[in-house]
Specification:
With about 70 residues, this protein is an all-alpha fold. Helix content is about 50%, strand content about 0%.
Length: about 70
């Protein structure tokens, strides 16, 4: 029987991503997560930035899921 050999190909080189390229995205997502954590965890009562109950009602189930007391 004849043996069929596949041509040898080199694996593509993986280019490392520099810290300078990642840093702005990491800061952006870090700030976004802090804002989200504020709205889910503290946007009610004395620290409220937005008046009314609208934000509280939007994140109510998320508060309970993450263990924040809200009532």
């Amino acid at each position: 029987m004849a043996q069929i050999a596949a041509p040898a190909t080199a694996a593509p080189a993986i280019t490392p991503i520099s810290l300078k390229a990642i840093a702005p995205w990491a800061v952006f997502f870090g700030i976004l997560m802090l804002v989200l954590l504020y709205f889910v965890g503290a946007e009610q009562g004395a620290t409220s930035l937005i008046s009314g109950e609208t934000v509280h009602e939007w994140v109510h189930d998320g508060r309970h899921l993450l263990g924040f007391p809200c009532h």
